[in-house]
C-alpha cells in the first residue's frame, strides 16, 4: 500500500522508535515514560511494565518519590533526582515499550550507553519482543545484528551488501571485514 494513502495519525500509532539521541524531559519519571504514548500517560501499571522491560523499574522505584520523582538537572528541589546516561537510555527504551502494540519498532543504537551486562540482557529481551513484528535495528555494534533476519550494510550511504550474518561472513566483504575488526578487540592476544 502506498504510504501516501494512509492517515498519518494512524500510521504514527503503528510505529515505535528509540533514537540514539533521545530526549530527557524535566518531568516525573512516570511522565518521562508516559510521553511515549500519551493515551497511557496516567496508566502507572503499564508504565511500570514498560520500565521493567527496559530494566529501569528498580532504579525508578528506588528514587525519593518513585515514579513521581521529578527528573531534572534544571529544577532543584527536595526529592528531585537525575539519572545517568545509561539510565536515561533505559527510560527512552521504556517509552518505546509502552507502545507494545506497534507494528514497527525502530531502534537506533538502543544500547550505546549501556554496560555490557545490561546490553546483553536488552538484546535478548528485544529478540523476544520483536517476534511477529517488523523491527529496524541500526547499529555499529555488529554483534547486536548477528540474529537479524536481514542485514543491510551501508558504506557512504549506499547499500553495498545484504543478507544474514552467516551469508555476509561467508562472502568476506565489508561486513566480514568490520565484524573481524570488532571481534579482534575481544580476542586473546598471544605475545
Low-confidence stretches: none
Quantity of strands, as a count: 7
Strand order of the largest sheet: 1-4-5
**Termini distance?**
59 Å
Summing up helix and strand content along with how strands pair, one would put the structural category as alpha/beta
Shape: globular
Structural description of this entry:
The chain has helices at residues 8-13, 29-34, 44-53, 57-61, 85-98, 116-129, 165-170, 174-184, and strands spanning 15-18, 27-28, 70-71, 104-108, 134-138, 151-155, 158-163. It is α/β, with parallel strands linked by helices. The chain has a three-stranded parallel beta sheet. It is globular and about 55 Å long.
Describe the structure using short key phrases.
191 residues, alpha/beta, 3-stranded parallel sheet, two-stranded antiparallel ribbon, 8 helices
